[in-house]
């Protein structure tokens, strides 16, 4: 049996791991898009024949784990795609959005390549490819064992990273023996505001483990709601300004809505309009509402008492472009939550552009932002930023809340792996992390008793 790493190898995007059994069955774990600078050609070529893949199994719906599925289908993959029901529903909206972005960005990318004297790229995929991919999905609930073939089974367990996120346990029968391979996907946090705790998983012989925050511990947030309320009161009540929050449309936006919903229910939220200005966030919130089987007991108890965790007076969901533009013309205090989370694209850039030079306003950053993005520039305290080719002075307040991270830190990842007997694990392969962080995570795993920890490079192949 062979395992080859075609993405998320010493980097954090493009998750793709190909398992080939001795009998020739080929199973692809995730099919993610490479994101960031200089990734165009990486997304064009898989490094393997898509038509040769028998099964695709997904850990969760984030684009760096699913964003190349339509291209896989476009290039000949016809097999089933296994995912949890919530992952399948999120993929429907996220892959459609990605197809729109691919079509929109291709012209800009090829204009740049023409200037550089490089050949143009072909379109990665279009909406028709998304629709075909969605027809190939097969949903699988947590805890239900399914045999893909007579020799290969899969089992999903909850990782609490995203609605529907799953770790994947595979059992492979070869040569009269059973080999147990585990893929962590992205590991969530044990005290998520909405999702259940990560679940233990069966003993494994081999583990493919993420390592995003293998070198850090999250800062404790004594009272997230109180911190958020303090920022709302300081901005909207004391200064009469607007609170602008760049937030990822899936998960992060819903966490913010839930926190504001609780504050409103407690009678603490000031009476002011709250706008969720993102068509994808609107759809994602509905998907989340439809999958309360993923929710923890605390939010379920809250919904039973309150009726909803994502709906309260003065909350407005905005999809129409004209309604979005009208928000900027509205005088007075308000809260605007819009994507993208790094403030690099989407409607949030327009809201920041229109409000960044007014000292009454606050831009609240609630998640990771790459240093090369607008969100990254604001997070590091740049006094001037470029938006749509213009330079703006940062007169608005910039606030930061890091308590919304969906990735476990190294202590939480060790807790997640505590269900394993390290002596029975032959090798741990580290993926989905920067190399310097993986080196530190490797040391911590070795200290915890895992004797063989490897950091595979791009396209490296190993024998299991």
TrEMBL record:
Q: Which UniProt keywords apply?
A: Hydrolase
Q: Which organism is it from?
A: Fibrisoma limi BUZ 3
Domain spans labelled Beta-Casp: 253-378
GO MF entries: hydrolase activity; RNA endonuclease activity
The source's superkingdom equals Bacteria
- Protein's UniProt name: Beta-lactamase domain protein
Signal sequence, renumbered to the chain: none
Q: Does the keyword Hydrolase apply?
A: yes
Every Metallo-beta-lactamase domain range: 13-227
Q: Which InterPro entries does the entry mention?
A: Beta_Casp, MBL, Metallo-B-lactamas, RibonucZ/Hydroxyglut_hydro, RMMBL
